[in-house]
Amino acid sequence: MKKSIALLLSASLAFGTAPAALAAQTKFTLTTDVSAQTALADKYSSIVALFPSEGAVDLAAVKAAYEADFQADVKLVNEEIDALISQSLELAIAGDLSAGQAKQAIDKGLQWYFYNKITNHVRYEAIPLLEKGDKAGATAALEKGIELYASVLAPTAMKRDDYYKDTATPVMTEDTLATAVEGLRKAAADGDLLQYSIYRQMFDKTLIKVFHLATLKYAKTAPAAAEAKAKVEMTEGFFFFKPIYGSLSGGSKADADAVLEAFGSGDKTKLNEAAVKQHYAAMFNGKIGGYATRVLKDELPVEAKYAAAVEHAMEGNMFLAAMEVLIKEKLGEKVYATAVSHAEQYLQAVLKKDLAAANEHVVAYLKIVAQLDGVVFAIGSNELTVDGKTVTVDAASYVNPQTNRTLVPTRFIAEAIGAAVDYAAETQTVTIVKAGQTIELKLGSDVVVKDGVAQETKLEQTVVANAEGRSFIPLRAVAELFGNNVFYSKGEVVITE
Fold first, then answer.
1. What is the pTM of this model?
2. What is the DSSP string of 411-477?
3. Which of 172, 265, 349, 357 has its CA 20 to 30 A from that of 312?
4. How do residues 246-263 score in pLDDT, each as one tens digit?
């Protein structure tokens, strides 16, 4: 097995040209001892090799090897990984899972474990050392993570790139990861925490992209496969999704749960490629919108939070890069390139502390993302775009001249973001239900009742009704009440998960 790697590429963003400050190219010699990581990766290769391409598998030997070589550390890193691998092996030994399913549980379950190990080295060990000015210690921690990536996860990235290379949407995750590795190495050597954080986002989110693309592959092939093969591929998809479930559930937990349930069901009729892609669009949409809100509202306006704003702008941009295949398939390569251009200009604006430009460019690319999942409309228009489809409504949004607040029709906006709405005329109360949460609003009142409890935080203005009896709420309430992200630029509004 290869003992080390030299990934020396110019430090450009995965989706375009990097800021000049990041574009340096440096070569340097590292002397970190990564023998423990190499030995662990060799054990991974050995246990996967216990599953021959033909013939019977000694599952008891596989279980013994796992328990001897991995179980203790897997439990320390993530007990859930051990529970799922151990359960899969027990079920396979009992004949309730096939050897093929057991192989995927071991192989992809351990890749999940290695992803966690890599994160521990690259983030949780290296960054505190950089913060203390310990460049040598940070470099040593980084190199341990890089060795594990090179030995275990780089082949998975290569496999994903090979799968997509002859399609209409080729990807280059391996090249992007190589760029990220070189950027991390230089930043660690220089003791530059900001650059390190930027490249760590490139590295981590591209690994998320790799796992995402793997699940897309099996969402496509498993439903059409013979039953036995379908079960193996669904097991593989399940264990590829688990490493990124925690991150993407932050974009939309309901959609993350839906993907996990589909792959985990073992029933290929419950797995639908189009549905999985839509769920991913919602999850990525939520992550991008969440980081944009964080940057624009909480971080960029505060001098002390500048570094966090830059890192989180990059993080949001890398989630856009993770959507590459989804956007190109639905909207085309030119539209993706336009989104990337705005993302680059957004990051540049954040680097320059230009809040207005940052908002303008992030809204421009969120409008594109919203064509897959999200709501876009112009103030005063009765047309809205919901998940890329134009819908005409009988009540347009408007600006209340007395309060200078943008008001939107309650029913349509709520339904557009997946909520159910009811109106009780006798009490003039609007009830909105989403994700098990019930919100009650009353005409003429600014009080919000959540799950039967009046909230201390009130609406920016009272709920009003027009002459036709349509109720309207302040636009900002959409974000505050339903957890969505709301953006405004040049008379247009974008709502994401």
1. 0.90
2. HHHHHHTT-EEEEETTTTEEEEEETTEEEEEEBT----EETTEE-SS--SS-BEE-TT--EEEEHHH
3. 172
4. 999 999 999 999 999 999
